[in-house]
Specification:
Order of helices and strands: EHEEHEEHHEEHHHHHH
CATH architecture of the largest domain: Orthogonal Bundle
Oligomer: single chain
Distance between the termini: 46 Å
InterPro entries: Kinase-like_dom_sf, Non-receptor_tyrosine_kinases, Prot_kinase_dom, Ser-Thr/Tyr_kinase_cat_dom, Tyr_kinase_AS, Tyr_kinase_cat_dom
Strand order of the largest sheet: 1-2-3-5-4
Protein name: Protein kinase domain-containing protein
GO molecular function, one term: protein tyrosine kinase activity
Helix content: 25-40%
Organism: Danionella cerebrum
CATH superfamily of the largest domain: Transferase(Phosphotransferase) domain 1
Number of domains: 2
Shape: globular
Structural class: alpha+beta
CATH topology of the largest domain: Transferase(Phosphotransferase), domain 1
Keywords: ATP-binding, Lipoprotein, Magnesium, Metal-binding, Myristate, Nucleotide-binding
Length: about 280
């Protein structure tokens, strides 16, 4: 297993069994849209002649939890998950996460910068399906993402959406006060009793679908943040985004079922999306 996980500092000085040494990453080039928070701490590197993304995180509890989980995560392989290639830990405490390079940046920026005049309904349903397939794969592997949102989905050169940053939040959410959780994306039971599960990921997926179909708007528009939770607990659900097909809005509402047991699984969601795509109901 260990050859997947390069947790040694000297690889930056010496290839030593790697086909290439990991070079000091050069700054991310790309569109203004890609210059969001993601690209500020992500640089482009070269690994075995291929572009890779190198993300630096400070060495704290989250970093340690990530290293502990990284061996599991390098074994998670799916076309709609951003592939983790390895981890480098420097003695002075920085942690570098090396992943496949995603040319078009985060999904939320992709949607905001292009908008409905550029992106058709087929592209939106395909993004929805891409994310669902990744989540079905994580579900089958009993892996809970905990921070699924359009900002944590990246878009490849050929417009495939891939889920990213899984595993970075596990330690954070168990030690943090709930105040630091992304309230608008987190299920009521996860906010209430920190009960994270695949079903809480399904809730977040419903919010992500709303983000896709509203071209990257912030969820719960016009509702003050402190009012979101009490209203949601009473059963409030967002309206459908403009132009969103009824069949897709119906899926969002099922994801936002207050009782997690009643929420669909990602497998069921993928089957519903497949039916929508096969019958071209998204038009």
């Amino acid at each position: 297993m260990h050859h997947f996980l390069y947790i040694v500092q000297h690889y930056t000085k010496d290839a030593d069994g790697l086909c290439t040494r990991l070079i000091k990453p050069k700054l991310m080039e790309g569109t203004v849209a890609a210059q969001d928070e993601f690209s500020r701490n992500v640089k482009v590197g070269d690994y075995r002649g291929k572009k890779v993304a190198v993300k630096c995180i400070k060495h704290d509890a989250t970093a340690q939890a990530f290293v502990a989980e990284a061996s599991v995560m390098t074994q998670l392989r799916h076309n709609n998950l951003v592939q983790l290639l390895g981890v480098i830990v420097e003695e002075k405490g920085s942690l570098f996460i090396v992943t496949e390079y995603m040319a078009k940046g985060s999904l939320v920026d992709y949607l905001r910068s292009r908008g409905r005049s550029v992106i058709g309904g087929d592209r939106l349903i395909n993004f929805s399906m891409d994310v669902c397939k990744a989540m079905e794969y994580l579900e089958a592997n009993n892996f809970v993402h905990r921070d699924l949102a359009a900002r944590n989905v990246l878009v490849s050169e050929d417009n495939i959406a891939k889920v990213s940053d899984f595993g970075l939040t596990k330690e954070a959410s168990s030690t943090q006060d709930t105040a630091k959780l992304p309230v608008k994306w987190t299920s009521p039971e996860a906010l209430r009793e920190k009960s994270f599960s695949t079903k809480s990921d399904v809730w977040s997926y419903g919010i992500l679908l709303w983000e896709i179909y509203s071209f990257g708007r912030v969820p719960y528009p016009r509702i003050p943040l402190k009012e979101v939770v009490p209203r949601v607990e009473k059963g409030y659900k967002m309206d459908a985004p403009d132009g969103c097909p009824a069949v897709v809005y119906d899926i969002m509402k099922q994801c936002w079922t207050l009782d997690p047991v009643v929420r669909p699984s990602f497998r069921e969601l993928r089957e519903k999306l497949q039916e929508i795509i096969s019958n071209e109901l998204y038009r």
